[in-house]
Amino acid sequence: MILLLFALVSSVAASEEKSSISGDQALQMLMDGNARFASGNATHPNQSEERLTDLVSGQHPFAVVVGCSDSRIPPEIIFDQGLGDIFVIRTAGEVMDNVTIASIEYAVEHLNVPLVLVLGHDGCGAVTAAVKGGEVPGHLNSLVGFIQPAVEEAKKAGNEDNLLENSIECNVDNVVEEIRTSEPILSEAVEKGNLTIVGACYHLDSGLVEISE
Ligand SMILES: [Zn+2]
What we know:
CATH topology: Beta-carbonic Anhydrase, Chain A
Number of domains: 1
CATH architecture: 3-Layer(aba) Sandwich
Strand order of the largest sheet: 2-1-3-4-5
Bound molecules: zinc ion
Helix content: 40-55%
CATH superfamily: Carbonic anhydrase
């Protein structure tokens, strides 16, 4: 029993292995893929039978993408990636809770992924609901609650004309910050220089991803 427990603990213990590529290189790979997609030159890599076979023994994704569940923004397609390339977490409004943070921890700690990209997008329905405020049905209330601080920040910053756009940006910033400061695993990975976290916005009209300043 003790041995079994030890084996279990060992298998989930922290991995000290560092990714063979840097966060910056991983970001470049995503942006190169997005440029191919947006220009109509997608190559649809890593979707062969051979790739399928190669991945049976394990996965080595080079990036985590935290995005919105919006059907128009599937990360594998807009970044022109294939099987085993990116570790994707999607919720409406790309909001994070303990379970989604745990998914990122798994990717960073066990798969040694060097980059987390948080992707907001134009016209996000979840952020729109938070901007509108008022009563929402069912569990939507808790979803909107996650986004509400971003709307308040955008309001404080002024410029009511672009409230939705600014709220979308603030929401991405807040999610980046939440991931960056999540203790102990993610914050330590950032401190050790093993993890880069960036925010970005996807533009529905151009298909282009713009990295946040
Ligand atoms: Zn959305």
